């Protein structure tokens, strides 16, 4: 498991491109038959990618849970949110099988001992993007078809930011301890997400971009509002946004992204909005 230490805003404004990428970019999430895990000390969020071949993959496979998390099993003191962006498959939670078609989500609460990811067809493997955060009580496991997510249309074509925010792990959909998670889809021709932008001092966030055509990129904007930086992201890459950082992006074509947040609250609208005139 890769471990990332937190960066503070005073230091980050001096980072080179390489250093920005080393600190915040998350790559290699979906190599067939492999598992990627990146543990951030920021709110102790773990960003993961599971891409099972003929063999299923366990949540805690090839890791020493006692050494990394200091507990006997992965979800002893954690909760988990998953969205499948690949082909159909299954997630088995303590013996209960959940069919996971593309764009299905699953919340798995603290206390579940065994989570197994599988693809139905190795030629069209499932790609399970997952986030896990510390949790202090058990909530029931819930399967979320995208039609059950809360939908929030946003933006307009004239501003090239028409999109729909699908809120999967949201208090109006299901209960979690601290994890919020969902998927935003850009309309064709719209390329700007989250602009006008915001930060949220009380939560951190991870963005994972996908559905980007080959050779397309997203210029992901981060940094303090008056000290903005960018990181070039390609398809199926993620980026960590500390609480002090804006998180917005402009693609060379339309795309989708999964956002996930942890911190003081699950109030999606609790944002520090930044006026366009204040951006530098
Ligand atoms: O399209 C958007 O705007 C978003 O999806 C915003 C993110 O969900 C976010 O940053 C929530 O804090
Ligand atoms: Zn945000």
UniProtKB/TrEMBL annotation:
It catalyses: 5-dehydro-4-deoxy-D-glucuronate = 3-deoxy-D-glycero-2,5-hexodiulosonate. This is 4-deoxy-L-threo-5-hexosulose-uronate ketol-isomerase. Its cofactor is Zn(2+). Zn(2+) binds at residues 198, 200, 205, 247. It comes from the Bacteria. Binds 1 zinc ion per subunit. GO terms for biological process: D-galacturonate catabolic process; D-glucuronate catabolic process; pectin catabolic process. Pathway: Glycan metabolism; pectin degradation; 2-dehydro-3-deoxy-D-gluconate from pectin: step 4/5. SUPFAM superfamilies: RmlC-like cupins (SSF51182). Its EC number is 5.3.1.17. The keyword Ligase does not apply. Belongs to the KduI family. InterPro entries: KduI, KduI/IolB_isomerase, KduI_N, RmlC-like_jellyroll, RmlC_Cupin_sf. It is an enzyme of class 5 (isomerase). GO terms for molecular function: 4-deoxy-L-threo-5-hexosulose-uronate ketol-isomerase activity; zinc ion binding. The gene is kduI. Catalyzes the isomerization of 5-dehydro-4-deoxy-D-glucuronate to 3-deoxy-D-glycero-2,5-hexodiulosonate. Keywords: Isomerase, Metal-binding, Zinc.
């Amino acid at each position: 498991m890769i471990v990332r230490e937190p960066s503070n805003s005073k230091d980050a404004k001096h980072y080179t491109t390489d250093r920005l990428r080393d600190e915040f970019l998350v790559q290699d999430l979906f190599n067939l038959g492999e598992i990627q895990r990146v543990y951030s000390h920021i709110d102790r969020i773990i960003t993961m990618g599971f891409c099972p071949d003929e063999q299923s993959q366990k949540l805690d496979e090839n890791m020493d849970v006692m050494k990394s998390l200091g507990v006997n099993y992965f979800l002893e003191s954690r909760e988990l949110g998953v969205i499948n962006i690949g082909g159909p498959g299954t997630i088995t939670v303590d013996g209960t099988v959940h069919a996971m078609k593309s764009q299905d989500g699953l919340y798995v609460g603290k206390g579940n001992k065994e989570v197994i990811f599988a693809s139905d067809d190795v030629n069209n493997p499932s790609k399970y993007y997952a986030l896990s955060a510390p949790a202090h009580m058990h909530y029931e496991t819930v399967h979320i078809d995208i039609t059950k997510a809360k939908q929030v249309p946003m933006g307009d074509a004239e501003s090239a930011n028409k999109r729909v925010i699908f809120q999967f792990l949201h208090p109006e959909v299901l209960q979690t301890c601290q994890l919020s998670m969902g998927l935003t889809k850009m309309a064709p021709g719209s390329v700007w997400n989250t602009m006008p932008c915001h930060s949220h001092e009380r939560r951190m966030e991870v963005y994972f971009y996908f559905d980007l055509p080959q050779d397309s990129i997203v210029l992901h904007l981060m940094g303090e509002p008056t000290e903005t930086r960018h990181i070039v992201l390609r398809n199926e890459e993620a980026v960590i946004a500390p609480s002090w950082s804006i998180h917005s992006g402009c693609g060379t074509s339309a795309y989708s992204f999964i956002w996930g947040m942890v911190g003081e609250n699950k109030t999606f609208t609790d944002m520090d909005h930044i006026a366009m005139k204040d951006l530098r």
